[in-house]
Every structure is written in C-alpha cells, then in structure tokens.
Design goal:
Layout: E1 3-4, E2 23-24, H1 30-37, H2 59-63
C-alpha cells in the first residue's frame, strides 16, 4: 500500500465518499486480496482513459509528501 486516506478524504485528486476510505496500491492487487480474505468488503474502481503524454504530471506532484 502506498497511501491510505481518511474517511471521506480525497486521495490523489480522486473523490472518496463519506463512510469510505481511499487507498493507493502498487504492485498489483495483492493488498486488496488480503483485505478481502480478512472479510473487508472491497469496491474497486480503476481510472482509465487516454490523455496526451505532454499533459501528464508526476505522481509525486499529485500526492505531495507520500513517503
């Protein structure tokens, strides 16, 4: 897991509803699978689409101090 938000807190410019938390994961869905196996209900949303490469920004710029 790279970043875990607080309840209802937007994470990396992605809105999160009240009563839910956002989580940024890397290296596949293994952390999500572990949560499901522990009995946590998971709703997975992926962000997809096409954008011009010149419009992309660094992930570090989006999340600020994520370390």
């Amino acid at each position: 897991m790279l970043k875990l938000g607080k309840e209802g807190e937007s994470i990396c410019e992605t809105a999160v509803s009240l009563g839910r938390v956002g989580m940024i994961v890397i290296d596949g869905l293994n952390p999500v699978a572990a949560a499901v196996e522990a009995g946590v209900t998971i709703i997975n949303h992926h962000v997809t689409g096409l954008i011009e490469f010149s419009k992309l920004r660094s992930f570090r710029d989006l999340c600020g101090n994520w370390g």
